[in-house]
Amino acid sequence: MRTRLAATTALLLSAALTGCAADDAPPAEPSRRAAAPAPVESPSAPAPETSAEFLALAEEAMAAEKGWRFTVRGSEDLTLQGQTSGATYSATVHRTTGATWALHSVGSSRSNKGVTKSETVYAVDGVGYVKDGDAAWRHGPLADSEIASKVEDPMAALDTFEDYGDAVSVTASDRSVELRVRTTSAALPAVRDQGVVRKALRELAPTLEQLRAAGVTAPESGITVERAEESLVLNPSTYQVTSHTFRCVLRIPYGTQGIRYAQEVTERASGPYEGTVVLPQEAATPAL
Predict the structure, then answer these.
(1) Is 0.70 topped by the overall pTM?
(2) DSSP code for 175
(3) End-to-end CA distance of the chain
(4) Which of 34, 183, 227, 278 has its Cβ near the most Cβ atoms within 10 Å?
């Protein structure tokens, strides 16, 4: 999500800085029935309790299918001196599993000014391929932040939550199992080492660069984290992932009111996917 606000941020800054069958067989003889061995019940596995146990079961459950379909909904907003520049995003994602997983996403973003732009993304063999609107295909390694920001991979949340470790809280009921990480409102220096805050800063980074280019010289030490949280919801019976949500709100010092940055992205599983993800030829060999 973190690059989809780029087109509207500059407009906001320009204006404000200047002024999300029945059996009929006879019964067995009593003596024979009595001699039959009693069934042996196998001991059931202990119920999971910790986040690590739930995550291990979730990984196994998701890997049992060839692939999954997800819907993605997101929003991103920047508010400065009472003016808000924002964008919403929606997409359908097909994601295969296994060692050689692949992903195909088709979506669109819409700014609060009514400007809509389509987006197609592939992730194959560690490389991401992106096409924004009528622009030419571009590609790069998934380690590239500009490419990674375009790849909404719901299953990557399993690895993320493993990395969060003991910071993950678990709430289990008959209806769902929710794993959650959150931070309380605090100045950035006090919480910046928390995993969910580091993720929020990665999302903020491109917008912060634009702000600085526009003359907002706020140091990171002056940023306030009003909210940063991430949740992963599992089916309590199958342990399959049903949804994943990330939210953050940060305030950047500027003038008397400051600048408010907010983002929310939710990915929901909509069922198994039996197809394959095939990279189109034009994406594999983009025009020079």
Answers:
(1) yes
(2) S
(3) 26
(4) 183
